[in-house]
Predict the structure.
Amino acid sequence: MIQTIGLSKAFHGAEVLKNINLQVAKSEIVVLLGPSGSGKSTLLRCLNGLEEPTGGAVELNGIRVDAAMKVREKRSRYREIRKHTGMVFQQFNLYPHKTALENVIEALLTVKKMPKHQAVQIGERLLERVGLAGKKDAYPSRLSGGQQQRVAIARALAMEPDIMLFDEPTSALDPELVGEVLDVMRELAKEGMTMMVVTHEMKFARQVANRIVFMDEGTIVEEAPPEAFFREPATERAKKFLNQLS
Ligand code: ADP
Ligand code: MG
């Protein structure tokens, strides 16, 4: 479902992703770990075109973007990829002047040109799914961080993505609100969504991931099932990373 082939990304000549080769199967949950600055966000952003690779290629759901392609071709393929890929960020980025429901159905109306009554039906169902049926008319400022993030997840799901990318979705939340967002992600995982998740929630990583990918300095240093990774990481770098957490 997701593949990177010799993916690299440089900013002003500095390579922050170096020859990343990664494959994620359908319904697989991959958790990306690594120190700050190791390239985790850049990797996710290269998958959906928020950043463009400077070398190698990415392929999502059969749509390939090669760094060597013409800019216009790359952009058009990334547009296709984004139709099937949802992304959730640390900052929820909801429209402040739209209600929860309006945020969720925005893309259905503007991108899919769906009739409003149909979009509303879907939006209400999605808000129910993330436990926010009663908040559909609330504006983001009236919602807690955890509720806002769940609206952001519902909004991403509205486009019926085959892949969900999460970049530290709970890092901006007060500790008591983290669980409700992770629970929604657990449900998605259970339903077979293909997911790549950057998170500092090690318990979630242990319980939900099928595989841990550990990055440092722009490379994949280690890949392992969570039990093995947390019990006995193979590399000194991963050991050091885990020791610093505890
Ligand atoms: P992580 O998410 O693992 O903390 P990032 O992917 O955000 O790491 O960053 C990896 C490296 O790329 C860092 O050194 C960061 O400063 C650099 N970087 C990220 N985005 C940009 C950008 N738009 N311009 C220049 N450098 C960037
Ligand atoms: Mg990051």
